[in-house]
Batch of 2 targets.
Target 1
Amino acid sequence: MIVFDQVQKSYQVDGRAIPALHPTDMTIETGEVFGIVGHSGAGKSTLVRLINLLEPPSGGRILIDDENITHYSASELRAFRRKVGMIFQHFNLLSSKTVADNIAFPMKLAGIYSKAEIRDRVQELLARVSLSDHANKYPSQLSGGQKQRVGIARALACRPTILLCDEATSALDPQTTQSVLRLLADINRELGLTIVLITHEMDVVRRVCDRVAVMDAGRVVEMGPVSEVFLHPQHPTTRDFVFESESIDSEEMQEDLQKAKGRIMRLTFKGDATYKPLLGSVARESGVDFSILSGRIDHIKDTPYGQLTLSLVGGDLDVAMNALKAADVHVEVLR
Amino acid sequence: MEALMDGLLSNVDWSEIGLASWDTLIMVGMSLLFSVLIGLPIGVLLFLTGKRQLLEQPAAYAVLSFVVNVLRSVPFIILLIVMIPFTVMLIGTSLGVAGAIPPLVAGGAPFFARLVETSLREVDRGIIEATQAMGASVKQIVFGALLPEALPGIIAGITVTAITLVSYAAMSGVIGGGGLGDLAIRFGYQRFQTDVMVITVALLVVFVQVLQMLGDRLVLHFSRK
């Protein structure tokens, strides 16, 4: 469990303190995939680097499994960092070392593993990230996705309990992003590793995260389960992110809504409700006519969801609303 | 043909040339060795104590940088002369091959140190950060990541330093340093034996060419980018 207790960070620029992270409380549970989303400069890079103290905090306490890491000595800190893997946007592999040597590097640095242990572990990790055939290649001979898989294997070498991902898929194409995210999800499930992932893409959060924190100007402005934050965004920044990921132009949407007649509602289905033939029966029972203004059916991690914006005309609206609510559909009246 | 060569190069004593070439080789080789041994750690320190680096130490950096700059800004010919008492103290003579090596190192080491600092700065900061995040100590970062990553740049720096030392070594002939430069000055300049001058210059050109080629090959061999 990672606990931030009033953690803050500011940088000294020309004698003035510029805040990068305002005092923040946050708890990341063991074994969850925790997303931090924000625009560049929002402070998410700083936040993730506080967890392995690449950035020392200017105030507050950081507790990892009830231990205050902010008081660690240099050698305690080095030992602690071995238990926290990290992967990066630009992979940061050593160009002078082969794939196998890159993966072996953290184990060699630790100085507590035998040659045979290192060799076996490297083989095991190469197989896990499907790169066994590339052991003796140099990073420059690999594609972006392969490089990131080497990065993941390297981060896992010393069997960490936490994996930090700094924009790990931002330099990858959509297909490669998919496969890297799937690998991260597998690792999380099979090894029970806590993953903290920062990104500027809500889509990445939607696919792999359990909970998410949205950051804006050095503050966490919204935090909660991904389905909650994603389907019912409260803060304007969160809304921007969600709209962005669904390629919704909010002005265009407003215009569409103005043209529509009657009541406008946004229905949100989750889980099994997504697949039920609900709308037709509700329309029959209540005599309400509906037209679909916009809609989307997709997954949040493994849970299917649907979100429809409808305009409803005629019939008995209350009956329709109650029927929808009874079927576990979240109903939001927009107009 | 042979007669023509003898006529044109009547003053050239080939055994003397051979000996002088060997002397130049020794001077460049030894001074390069010491320049690298002394310059490399200074270069690493310059890098580490620099702004926003692992061991940021503005005062230490300023002092180190100042010393390096002073040694680099003194024209080598002056350095040769200024160094004479120190050289005598160090190895007993300021003449010949041995006497030339201390001033050559004094000129070569700071030059190489700057080249090392520059090539270390070119290592991606992300690699340093990644290595730090693995729990590496500063020493491990330097030897495990920084130096291997900067190796091609450092080899290129050694090549440039070697070539600079060839021209410095030739210059040391002025104060009786030995080698091809000494030959060029004593025979080519002071006795107006143009043929000796031409031959020594030609040999120096060949020497530099070979060094550059060798260096380029090594850089290529160690580049993985």
Target 2
Amino acid sequence: MATDVSAYEEMIKGLWRDNPVFVQVLGMCPMLAVTNSAINAVVMGLATFFVLVGSSFLVSSFKTFIPKQVRISLYIIIIATFVTVVDYSLLAILPAIHKELGAFIPLIVANCMILGRQEAFASKHNVKYAVMDAVGMSGGFLIAMLALGSVREILGVGALFGVDLFGSNFEPWVIMILPPGGFLTLGLLLLFFNWFTERRRQFLIKVADADRVLAVEKVDAQGVKDNG
Amino acid sequence: MKNHHLKKKDPNLLLQSAPLLRQELTTPAAMKDVWIALLPATAASLWFFGLSALLIILTSIAGAILTEWVFTDKEKRRFAISDTSAGLTGLLIALTLPPGLPLWMVFLGGCVSIGLGKVVWGGLGSNIFNPALLGRAFLLGTFPIAMTTWGAAGGPGEFFQIHSSNLALPFMQAQVDSMGAATPLGLMKFEQQGTALWSLFTGNTAGSIGETSALFLLLGGIYLLLRRGIDWRIPVAIFSTAALFSLIMFLTDGDKYPSPLFTLFSGGLLLGAFFMATDPVTSPLTPKGCWIFGIGIGFLVVLIRLFGGLPEGMLYAILLMNAATPLIDRYTQPRIFGRQG
């Protein structure tokens, strides 16, 4: 059975290596729709965080009771429960942001990243791993939302979390807070992420090759010595 | 290298790799024709908009070439820059910009047109949309106010009168210029006010720096047609469709809709028809496809001008038909010889 180290790894993988947005390209709908300001993006990310962790916990706890034939609908019901909790909590705590996020709060139910984690992970692992995985995945989602929301708000309004950055003379990039800006920014971030990953991979290959060459040379030298 | 004996030059042995028959028409040569064809329009832009136009053209070319250089593989850089296509894109986007646009926006436009319009698709020949127009569309969506603030055309006497808004600091707003003027198309659309055809023909009107002078654009276009640098079907289809459509509208209501000649000579129609729509990468391959493509542009441009919210529609007309080009190519493929269609 796995140790604590791998539970930690289940969490870390969602943040970077298996990032739900940049690597799996899941959850694009809220990603593009509500990242027009950093605060909206963060609230949306936190809401998703709560829903994913909660439903992963429940699904993993009940996994032996859930009949295989109706599992998807049961997952949806569990997810919908948490979404309703989030919906009403936000309405009570942050009514202004709730109004701006609008239909996208109920639509968390349809976020394929959340259902995907239930089907692929929570229903097959015990509670600890399921929760760690959910924390990592929604953490990765939150990071991506924050990155997109910050870029769009800084360029589109000249502010970050509502704080003016450039003074009143700033020329806003109107396109950035409009839908095309979401697509452009997401595309460029994906481009950057892939470029970075590929560079890292090439670097690792180079290092591995160098190691192998060293090892071979060592063996050769040994052989020469033995034969000599 | 093992074949040392092949390194020595043997006069009886001609070593040559695959394309044994070479065509005279190379990419740099084709580009050179377009540069020459754009000279009159560029000269006209300097005449009417002075130093501002020169700065815009140089900035935009610099942005385009710099982006191409940064995002091209080290081994391919020399070829990518020396085929002059990046510089040409820079010149083309400059000609579609208003004279008072801050230079940092111009630079950004040059970068976006090459970066998002060409490099991300895989470089020259792989892009779907005309890079210059994509850059302009980005600027129009990003800075809608600055992109629709036009300066009036001046004469050569005002050559050194630069628009103060050109020199706005990066990311900062331009100081509002008192030289605001409306383009002929804007006057027509919002105030039902015509412009003298002679002004449209010579280019002494407000507008983007390279689009105003019909005469000089025609000169360049005819040169390109004579050199067979572009497919004649595309401009002909655009002109005839646009003229026909606007003639029909003009005959139904002559007060409300402009005459066909106004439609042809105003705005970016000539510049777009000769230099942007005919881009060999983003236009159809077959003759029949070229007709469909041109007719589509001519129809859309008049549709947008007369019934849309914007005064000018050439930009979106061409981009829309660019998007349809792969489809047109697929449906106009000639029958393969010896097979049943």
